[in-house]
Amino acid sequence: MAEDRNGRDMPADAPLPPGGCDCHVHVFEPARFPLAADRTYTPGLASLPMLEAHLAALGLERVVLVQPSVHGTDNSCLLDALERLDGRGRAVAVIDPETTPDSEVKALRDAGVSALRVNLESRGETRADFARDAFTRTAARAADHGLAVQIYATMPLLSHLADLIAASAAPTILDHFAGAKAAAGLEQPGFADLLQLLAGGKVWVKLSGAYRASSVPGHADLDPIARTLIAARPDRLVWASDWPHTGGGKERAERGPFALEPFRDIDDAGALRQLRTWCGDAATLHAILCANAARLFAFPF
Length: 301
Known about the structure:
The protein contains eleven helices and twelve strands. It is α/β, with parallel strands linked by helices.
């Protein structure tokens, strides 16, 4: 049982507030939508009905689909699932900022896409110059269409991107605790830049994929980072499960890109309970799980 900041208990099993949103999931239906030939991994089936069962089990009403790297710039699977969600979903797409025409970006926006993704981490990209160029080109296209830009990268890269993010006309969303690693603590490279960007209202951070930031069972070592972010700007944070929990790391490299990669077995209900504990009160939980997602991804209030 978490205790709220007004001294009242907030039961861990209390119903979630209405409008709860899982802000980062993927759908894979490879029999209908073939995977890219240059992919770095091969996921199994994670269909829309399976996603809807995941949301129902958690008591969440809304969802944000994120284009996975295995589909490159072909957003067909994403758009198909988005249409079938019938208003319950929004999406983050991937484009080629040099070749994707404005008409296609407009069509993505009209279909419910709220942001364009720059995925540096899935291909192990750590070059500062490459990251700056990728961000600049995609952020410009996003700003032209009133979209946000979403970045998946290691936290040390954030130091090299901070000035661009601060000057960007497009809102910036940072995946998976902004790439922070629990073991590196609050002094890790990039964390001070993150707090400064949060203070200025220049970024949104997804409290998502705790297992990517921590290798400790239960992820208790993430508490200082999560609580620091919540204390800094609870109005600029959203929550996500990262379902269906793709793999990565050494195992992916050893497996190779074309062998079927098993999804990780993650306790998503436990992740939501951990969020309650980090929030400490019902108002903060409502902000991070519901209201912030509605503002960022343009859901009705």
